[in-house]
């Protein structure tokens, strides 16, 4: 069964230092896909459309980030990292797909990284989840993560605190200076790395040192994960 880990415990992947420029448009609805972007790897989504992707340079290694919420194998052989926003409809739709993917794939670990770029409310929700992670651990934080995506309408800090309170994690405890400061620092680190990687749409992913812009879909992700195991690339020769 999947396990929750407070921090990454595997060696960092092999990342190349060079990165090609990638110019893509914002995609805010399910099915939207940037056109004409460069591709490091020839990968396609579940509908057969090319997935914009680029090699991530070593200085943007996401394994060193504080406050990543890890879910999955305790000793993973493949790590999939999602950069998301709580007000992203595509992210919302992908939650059950990713959860099932991790539970059904031995050796896979999912890392959740906040890229709260869609609204000020997204920032407040992200800080709350990061505070819960620090105060109550990854299992509670993952439960809150799923609850927030199950909400209808706009998600913000107020609603996130109310959801945490329903889980017996009080707003007063989450607002303690040390907890709140650590959550704010972690969120800043997440968003700085996302910006440096060019993740201007949500969700975006990192798999085998490659940044994927947009949600590929579960079939495509499964194929890339299988290739990562077989040949350490997203597509095997």
Q: Can you describe what's shown?
A:
The chain is of the alpha+beta class. Helices cover 40% and strands 14% of the residues. It is globular and about 55 Å long.
Radius of gyration: 17 Å
Q: Give the strand tally.
A: 7
- Strand-residue fraction? 5-15%
Average pLDDT = 86
Quaternary structure state of the chains depicted:
single chain
Amino- and carboxy-terminal Cα gap:
32 Å
CATH hierarchy: architecture: 3-Layer(aba) Sandwich
Q: Identify low-pLDDT runs.
A: 3-36
Order of helical and strand elements: EEEEHEHHHHHEEH
Class by alpha and beta content: alpha+beta
Largest sheet: 7 strands, mixed
Strand order of the largest sheet: 1-3-5-4-6-7-2
How would you describe the shape? globular
How do you describe this structure in short?
The chain has 237 residues and is α+β, with helices and mostly antiparallel strands.
Keywords:
237 residues; alpha+beta; Glutaredoxin; seven-stranded mixed β-sheet; 7 strands; disordered N terminus
How are the SSEs ordered, and which strands pair?
Elements lengths: L2 E3 L47 E3 L13 E4 L5 E7 L4 H16 L3 E7 L5 H17 L1 H13 L6 H10 L4 H4 L2 H21 L6 E4 L2 E4 L4 H14 L6
Parallel strand pairs: 4-5
Antiparallel strand pairs: 1-3, 2-7, 3-5, 4-6, 6-7
Helix pairs in contact: 2-3, 2-4, 2-6
């Amino acid at each position: 069964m999947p396990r929750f880990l407070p921090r990454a415990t595997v060696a960092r992947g092999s990342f190349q230092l060079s990165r090609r420029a990638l110019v893509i448009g914002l995609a805010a609805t399910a099915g939207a896909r940037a056109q004409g972007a460069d591709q490091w790897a020839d990968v396609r989504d579940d509908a057969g459309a090319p997935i914009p992707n680029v090699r991530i340079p070593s200085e943007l290694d996401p394994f060193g980030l504080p406050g990543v919420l890890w879910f999955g194998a305790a000793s993973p052989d493949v790590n999939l990292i999602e950069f998301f926003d709580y007000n992203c409809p595509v992210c919302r739709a992908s939650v059950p797909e990713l959860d099932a993917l991790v539970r059904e794939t031995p050796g896979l670990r999912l890392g959740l990284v906040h890229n709260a770029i869609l609204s000020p409310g997204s920032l407040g929700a992200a800080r709350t989840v990061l505070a819960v992670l620090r105060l109550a651990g990854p299992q509670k934080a993952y439960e809150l993560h799923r609850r927030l995506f199950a909400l209808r309408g706009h998600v913000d800090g107020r609603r996130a605190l109310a959801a945490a309170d329903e889980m017996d994690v009080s707003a007063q405890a989450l607002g303690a200076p040390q907890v709140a400061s650590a959550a704010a620092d972690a969120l800043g680190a997440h968003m700085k790395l996302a910006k440096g990687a060019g993740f201007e749409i949500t969700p975006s992913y990192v798999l085998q040192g490659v940044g994927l812009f947009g949600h590929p879909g579960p079939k495509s992700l499964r194929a890339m994960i299988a290739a990562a195991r077989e040949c350490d690339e997203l597509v095997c020769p």
